[in-house]
Amino acid sequence: MICVGGDDVGNQGDCGGDVGNQGDSVDAKWFSSARNHVASAASRRTREERERKEEVDSQPGSRAAPTDPYRYRMDYPSLGTCLIINNKNFHRSTGMSFRNGTDVDAGTAMKTFSGLGYKVRVANDQTVRQMENLLLSVSQEDHSGCASFVCVLLSHGDEGVIYGTDGFVELKTLTGYFKGQRCPSLVAKPKLFFIQACRGTDLDGGIETDSVAEQSPERIPVEADFLYAYSTAPGYYSWRNTANGSWFMQGLCEMLQRHGTELELMQIMTRVNHKVATEFESSSNLPGYSDKKQIPCIVSMLTKDFYFPH
């Protein structure tokens, strides 16, 4: 059960510093076989008719046709696991502050991803060793019956690192467990990481605008089929409201709930970017921390379109 904690309405950040309990705060060879160029007119007509039928049968949001090389398969027994790591309380030695509002994020994420069809697990207040062991353990499970994997990380952070309750670890260490032969049952399947954490200490003051046929490859890159959705751009604070949760997770969950079964994932993430960029602005009782903006950063190594199944 996720408890919604914190009675003080304000905004905090995920960089570890306390920027006020009123307002917003910061968390700190392509390969292909040669085609037969001497095809008969009859066989061409047959192929064209088959392709037209596949186009009709493969509408956005439906399960992908097995022959579609540009869409991830969703016709597995399970959509997959969604692992949520929610770090709220930190050891004094880290210098990191209490993350009010993070339970709201965890609860909303749990509801959203379970609604999409994921088997959700939640782990609260994990040390660095616990985070490493947990992700390693999940990566070693058999995902052969799963279409994808999702991980939501809610914590303090800095560029390239995220905090456990007793220190920090490089993100590439945690995501590395799912690459290549370290996790063979997820090879060529989408692995989605959503990261709510600071990536630096810069503040975004904003600016006024005037207006508002599939071939099976022999090898694939180990970095392929990952998506990293960061709550903020490199070097910047990430804002979290102590009552409503972080701007990024609010936007992400709202757009997934609204468009999850009709739009392709990158279209959804573009709408998340739009919402966070245009509908949020910080309010803090500390000088210099009010009227600040934020833009998420989506890094995609996905090789196909991703549609959640109906």
What's the gist of this structure?
With 310 residues, the protein is of the alpha/beta class. It is built from 6 helices and 13 strands. It has helices spanning 41-57, 102-116, 128-139, 171-176, 247-259, 265-279; strands spanning 11-14, 25-27, 78-86, 119-124, 146-154, 157-158, 161-164, 167-170, 191-196, 226-230, 239-241, 245-246, 297-300.
Describe the secondary structure blueprint for this structure.
Layout: E1 11-14, E2 25-27, H1 41-57, E3 78-86, H2 102-116, E4 119-124, H3 128-139, E5 146-154, E6 157-158, E7 161-164, E8 167-170, H4 171-176, E9 191-196, E10 226-230, E11 239-241, E12 245-246, H5 247-259, H6 265-279, E13 297-300
Parallel strand pairs: 1-2, 3-4, 3-5, 5-9, 9-10
Antiparallel strand pairs: 1-11, 2-11, 6-7, 7-8, 10-13, 11-12
Key traits:
alpha/beta; disordered N terminus; four-stranded mixed sheet; six-stranded mixed sheet; about 300 residues
